[in-house]
Amino acid sequence: MHIAIAGNIGSGKTTLTKMLVEHFKWTPKFESVDYNPYLADFYNDMERWSFNIQIYFLNKRFLDVVEIRKSDKIIVQDRSIYEDACIFAPNLHDMGLMSSRDFDNYQSLFSLMVSLVQAPDLLIYLRSSIPNLVANIQKRGREYESSIRLDYLKGLNERYDKWIDSYSDGKLLIIDVDNLRFQENPDDFAKVCDLIEAQLNGLF
Questions:
Q1: For residue 194, how far is the Cα from the chain centroid?
Q2: CATH homologous superfamily for 2-200?
Q3: Does residue 78 have an active-site annotation?
Q4: 78, 84, 104, 151: which one is catalytic?
């Protein structure tokens, strides 16, 4: 079974993945950020490296989904394959940070890849305000994230909400992380687990 956790930068995807793995004894599939050869360059010069980093992420995400579907375990994925094509690449294109030629090339490749894999059995979206995202980004203190622009985060948030409003590929659970502080409050985490179990009851 494939459970994917979606959300903006700093929304708590990795934290929730770790907590769910510990609680339910599921298997994690983490987004590899510490070993991304383009990430630091991208945040320093988005226009130069936008296409490179999006292709890198798309390739990694596609390989992850193929591997997940071969497994007989319940796997929790930190970020879905859809987010690159529905959120990040269009946002970069609209901001003038990815050329139309590169964007069209990217979308064509994504369409081919997504036609070859199944959607997650459950998509969990972590909805967050910009102040909460900024606070979390500052708290974890990754140097390459220190130059993230507020307008960039805002554009991503708007696209996430638009994408989620039209998502119809499978079961969806939206968690408002401004109000359900699962990392800090055990009662809130228990509520999140209850919501997830309620969604999964129809999957077994």
A1: 22
A2: P-loop containing nucleotide triphosphate hydrolases (3.40.50.300)
A3: yes
A4: 78
